[in-house]
Amino acid sequence: MEFPSVLTVVTTELLIAGGRWLIGATMAALRAEVKGVC
Protein backbone atom coordinates (compact mmCIF):
# COMPACT_ATOMS: atom_id res chain seq x y z
CA MET A 1 0.00 0.00 0.00
CA GLU A 2 1.50 3.29 -1.13
CA PHE A 3 -1.12 5.52 0.46
CA PRO A 4 0.62 6.22 3.81
CA SER A 5 3.85 7.29 2.11
CA VAL A 6 1.93 9.44 -0.41
CA LEU A 7 -0.01 11.13 2.38
CA THR A 8 3.21 11.75 4.27
CA VAL A 9 4.83 13.34 1.22
CA VAL A 10 1.79 15.52 0.51
CA THR A 11 1.56 16.60 4.15
CA THR A 12 5.27 17.41 4.22
CA GLU A 13 5.00 19.43 1.02
CA LEU A 14 2.04 21.39 2.43
CA LEU A 15 3.92 22.07 5.68
CA ILE A 16 7.00 23.24 3.76
CA ALA A 17 4.87 25.49 1.53
CA GLY A 18 3.10 26.90 4.60
CA GLY A 19 6.40 27.48 6.37
CA ARG A 20 7.84 29.30 3.34
CA TRP A 21 4.68 31.46 3.14
CA LEU A 22 4.90 32.33 6.84
CA ILE A 23 8.60 33.19 6.51
CA GLY A 24 7.88 35.34 3.46
CA ALA A 25 5.02 37.15 5.21
CA THR A 26 7.17 37.72 8.31
CA MET A 27 10.06 39.08 6.25
CA ALA A 28 7.69 41.39 4.35
CA ALA A 29 6.26 42.69 7.64
CA LEU A 30 9.75 43.26 9.07
CA ARG A 31 10.83 45.11 5.92
CA ALA A 32 7.70 47.30 6.10
CA GLU A 33 8.49 48.14 9.74
CA VAL A 34 12.12 48.94 8.91
CA LYS A 35 11.04 51.22 6.06
CA GLY A 36 8.52 52.92 8.37
CA VAL A 37 11.16 53.49 11.07
CA CYS A 38 13.84 54.64 8.65
Structural overview:
- By secondary structure, the protein is mainly alpha-helical.
- Helix content is 92%, strand content 0%.
- The chain is built from 1 helix and no strands.
- The chain has one helix at 3-37.
- The chain is rod-shaped.
- The termini are far apart.
- The model has no long low-confidence stretch (mean pLDDT 90).
Mean of residue pLDDT values? 90
Oligomer: single chain
Low-confidence stretches: none
Radius of gyration: 17 Å
Helices and strands, in order, run as: H
The description of the largest β-sheet is: none
Q: What's the helix count?
A: 1
The percent range for strand residues is under 5%
Shape: rod-shaped
Pairing-aware structural class of the strands and helices? mainly alpha
Helical amount among residues, as a percent range?
over 70%
* Number of DSSP-assigned strands: 0
User: What separation lies between the terminal Cα atoms?
Assistant: 57 Å
Features:
single chain, 38 residues, mainly alpha, 1 helix, 0% strand
